[in-house]
Design a protein that fits this description.
Blueprint (H helix, E strand, L loop, with lengths): L4 H14 L5 E9 L4 E9 H12 L10 H15 E4 L8 E9 L4 E9 L8 E4 L10 E8 L2 E7 L6 E2 L4
Parallel strand pairs: 1-7
Antiparallel strand pairs: 1-2, 2-5, 3-6, 4-5, 6-9, 7-8
């Protein structure tokens, strides 16, 4: 008996949904004037992030199976290296890990963290190189908001830090 085409397609769709031809991430960064922090929500493909952490840890990493404390420590250490903010005087802004949320059905991992910015966002430097060492075609972006002022910064593999100038 031949298997109906729609049954084969329904079995293949979950695998196709997880595969993606591009490597990209998107961050939303909001400056909180009350707490003087830049609150960042970073969306990455979950499988890409697992691959990157596994390569760094030299062992299998699973968002669903690796103990939460270990996974959070790996993610935090990785972000400290790959997503940085420098103040106007060139000093690194203090990093605070908040947490993460894995959306398995859409292959998304949201990472939440913030930076202390006592003097605001104007003139800071952001470096967003997340996943760039693993994927040569990685394209990252940050949409930054400070009240009504905003800017979108693009980070290509060959581009380092970006200076923040808001409109």
């Amino acid at each position: 008996m031949r298997t109906p085409w729609f049954l084969l397609l329904s079995l293949a769709l979950p695998a196709l949904a997880r595969a993606h031809p591009i490597h990209t991430s998107f961050a939303e960064a909001d400056y909180n004037r009350t707490t003087h922090t830049l609150e960042v929500a970073l969306r990455v493909f979950a499988d890409d992030f697992e691959t990157t952490l596994a390569a760094r840890a030299k062992k299998k990493i699973s968002l669903g199976k690796t103990p939460a404390a270990e996974l959070n420590a790996l993610a935090r250490a990785y972000l400290l290296e790959c997503f940085t903010v420098r103040l106007r005087d060139g000093k690194p802004a203090e990093f605070q890990w908040i947490g993460r949320e894995h959306k398995e059905t859409t292959n998304e991992l949201w990472l939440f963290f913030e930076f202390a910015l006592p003097d605001g966002v104007e003139g800071i430097r952001i470096r967003h190189a997340v996943l760039g060492e693993q994927f040569s075609d990685q394209l990252n972006s940050v949409h930054l908001r400070d009240g009504p002022r905003q800017a979108t910064l693009l980070f290509f593999p060959d581009r380092g830090e970006r200076l923040v100038r808001l409109k």
